[in-house]
Amino acid sequence: MVKICCIGAGYVGGPTMAVIALKCPSIEVAVVDISKSRIAAWNSDQLPIYEPGLDGVVKQCRGKNLFFSTDVEKHVYEADIVFVSVNTPTKTRGLGAGKAADLTYWESAARMIADVSKSDKIVVEKSTVPVKTAEAIEKILTHNGKGIKFQILSNPEFLAEGTAIEDLFKPDRVLIGGRETPEGQKSIQTLKNVYAHWVPEERILTTNLWSAELSKLAANAFLAQRISSVNAMSALCEATGANVTQVSYAVGTDTRIGPKFLNASVGFGGSCFQKDILNLVYICECNGLPEVAEYWKQVIKINDYQKSRFVNRVVSSMFNTVATKKIAILGFAFKKDTGDTRETPAIDVCKGLLGDKARLSIYDPQVTEDQIQRDLWMNKFDWDHPIHLQPTSPTTEKKVSVVWDAYEATKDADGVCILTEWDEFKTLDYQKVYDNMRKPAFVFDGRNIVDVDKLREIGFIVYSIGKPLDPWLKDMPAVA
Ligand code: UDX
Ligand code: ADP
């Protein structure tokens, strides 16, 4: 029986391995992690991450050919294929601080693999890493491996959160990069055989190591760039009276452009886009390509601009001050159908409003109070370390309350900010919301999900990203 071990039971490792176990009953899959609480949660009825469909997959395989364990060394020792899916935070200190990836966790995983292995293994990079990481990992393994042969493959994961199970069942492509030697090609084939259990052959692409590593960064950069492009247009729409939804629809019907990833928003979040672009920028700079680096940096600058533009709209509409006013925040996750808050635009928007002394009442159907408090008091870049290494937050912060209901959050509020496109926010009883708010009552829709005309009829003053402005907002500057 082929044995697979995955180091890192996170958003990528957990769902990916669960689907491999489901689709390959003849393979034994162990997912290991240093975090005891995370593993305990994977072994319980309350999985550590919220992902539609994941529960069912885990229930079908757990205890049969899918195991979650903290015994990292035992499972690595027994495995034929070791996936590495650990954190790769952005460096906060030293060379490349604020841009380069911090490979501490990767390096310690590689050293441990070298230490405990007694048989040849295929080691698969699953976490997104800078181009040429495989080369560094290869060196660690071969210099410490006591004659054991390791083949390194890069097999980046393209799943998006919220649709992870769907994406894993029916991937657009699976990408496997390896060495162009006979041993490298043999390892590629071994991994290909795993995916071939359910992925059509023509969707499994094989490349050299560097192409696979770079493709992941490039794909995320292209996707993020589309969002920054439409967000840049949203600012122009507000200035000219055009409607960004109509513009992006018209643009997206060109088959060469296509309709996806053209929704204007308060900004993109998630664990990948910003981190991967910063990484790309750093690699370009290191390779003497400052113009290319500058080009990609702009995608992040527009994203930051979009978030601060939103905060400025809120503050300037409310008579230039939100001090002591109650603002309801609807949605804190970086997108709907996930409880993940990594790099969510809500963090910057909330920090911006708190900077202006607002009182916030936050509601998200999937994010816990502890997570929100932690996010709001954590420093930039601290979020991507294993949870037990993250700073804890002061729990009783008077300016932020977290509630479990949208009506409770909006009660007696002066304004409402919609920051995540949860379906339930589309169908709220906005008349009831309005009746319970202070007047004038404002709605700032950062996801373009409300019916602007209907809300205006009720009596709200409405700002919706990239839509023609409410007369109230016309003379209020959106830029600080
Ligand atoms: C992304 C990539 O899609 C995935 O392939 C990669 O493996 C990991 O990074 P993810 O971060 O999970 O996935 O979510 P994604 O759906 O890409 O959304 C990222 C952010 O962009 C979210 O904050 C989302 O709200 C925002 N977004 C997306 C927009 O603002 N507008 C859009 O049109 C699409
Ligand atoms: P991703 O979104 O890429 O899956 P996560 O942060 O959700 O990232 O998951 C990474 C996991 O890797 C965390 O649960 C962390 O505890 C784990 N981890 C980090 N370093 C190691 C290590 N050396 N050995 C085992 N697990 C590790």
UniProtKB/TrEMBL annotation:
GO biological process: UDP-glucuronate biosynthetic process
Protein name, per record: UDP-glucose 6-dehydrogenase
Active site annotation, chain numbering: C272 (nucleophile)
InterPro entries linked to this entry: 6-PGluconate_DH-like_C_sf, NAD(P)-bd_dom_sf, UDP-Glc/GDP-Man, UDP-Glc/GDP-Man_DH_C, UDP-Glc/GDP-Man_DH_C_sf, UDP-Glc/GDP-Man_DH_dimer, UDP-Glc/GDP-Man_DH_N, UDPglc_DH_euk
One Gene Ontology term of the molecular function aspect: UDP-glucose 6-dehydrogenase activity
Naturally occurring in which organism (per UniProt): Flemingia macrophylla
Gene3D superfamilies: Cytochrome c1, transmembrane anchor, C-terminal (1.20.5.100), NAD(P)-binding Rossmann-like Domain (3.40.50.720)
Similarity comment: Belongs to the UDP-glucose/GDP-mannose dehydrogenase family.
Residue sites binding NAD(+) per the record: 8-13, 33, 38, 86-90, 127-128, 161, 272-275, 342
Keywords: NAD, Oxidoreductase
EC number of this enzyme: 1.1.1.22
Domain UDP-glucose/GDP-mannose dehydrogenase C-terminal span(s) in chain numbering: 328-452
Stretches assigned to coiled coil: none
Pathway(s) annotated for this protein in UniProt: Nucleotide-sugar biosynthesis; UDP-alpha-D-glucuronate biosynthesis; UDP-alpha-D-glucuronate from UDP-alpha-D-glucose: step 1/1
Entry-linked SUPFAM superfamilies: 6-phosphogluconate dehydrogenase C-terminal domain-like, NAD(P)-binding Rossmann-fold domains, UDP-glucose/GDP-mannose dehydrogenase C-terminal domain
Catalytic activity, reaction form: UDP-alpha-D-glucose + 2 NAD(+) + H2O = UDP-alpha-D-glucuronate + 2 NADH + 3 H(+)
